[in-house]
Amino acid sequence: MQTAFVPFEQDKLFEAVFLERPNRFILHCRLKENGQTIRVHLPDPGRLTGLLREGAAIIVRHHNDPTRKTAWSAVMIEDKNTNTMVSLNTQLANQLVEKALQNGVIPSLKNYKILKREYTISPSRFDFFLDNGSRKLILEVKSVTMREDTYGKFPDAVTKRGKKHVEELAQIRQEGEMDTAILFVAQRNDVTAITTADEIDPAFSAAVKQAVVHGVTVLGSKCTVDRTGIKYDQEIPFHNVTNNS
Prior knowledge:
By secondary structure, the chain is an alpha+beta fold.
């Protein structure tokens, strides 16, 4: 059975404990093997609600690049509530979706082929430009780390850029020449559906609700994350709670 998988470099991964987050892009962690406190780059600038708790188990990656400001990067962290590993690299969602599209494992998109990555249509750039033989489709991918009850929720911080993307996808769809879609990818496997975080960014939620009215397709997926890598798990529903759908 076809799947999609992005492996991690095992020899560069180390177990650590999260200590604090002095700013959006930096963590302080303590290596388990020797107790050393290290400065770690965080690829995800969101709030990471419920994850960055003192003492949480975190996996970090060591870099041998002398030009980097930090020798370490955060890879994944354990959600203590569900004992689930959650990816901390937003770019992995795009890498995984690319492989999933190539392997045809996303049911709603299985008939589409990738024409281009990072497709630009004025004034913005979107993640994928796809074709199913009869229609072109612009696909934007959003990485989800936040969990509430059994829902993956997006965003975990106000995102003006995300709202702008959604509005532009709605406009493109209304023009009628191309289809558009948003794929929310939960980089964790302990959720059953995706929804918008109305309480965090009501403007983004309203934009998604309006986009659906204008014909933008909204999809959800979840992944399994462990020390070996990140694997596409399955498509899950998107529920627009603002209209109780």
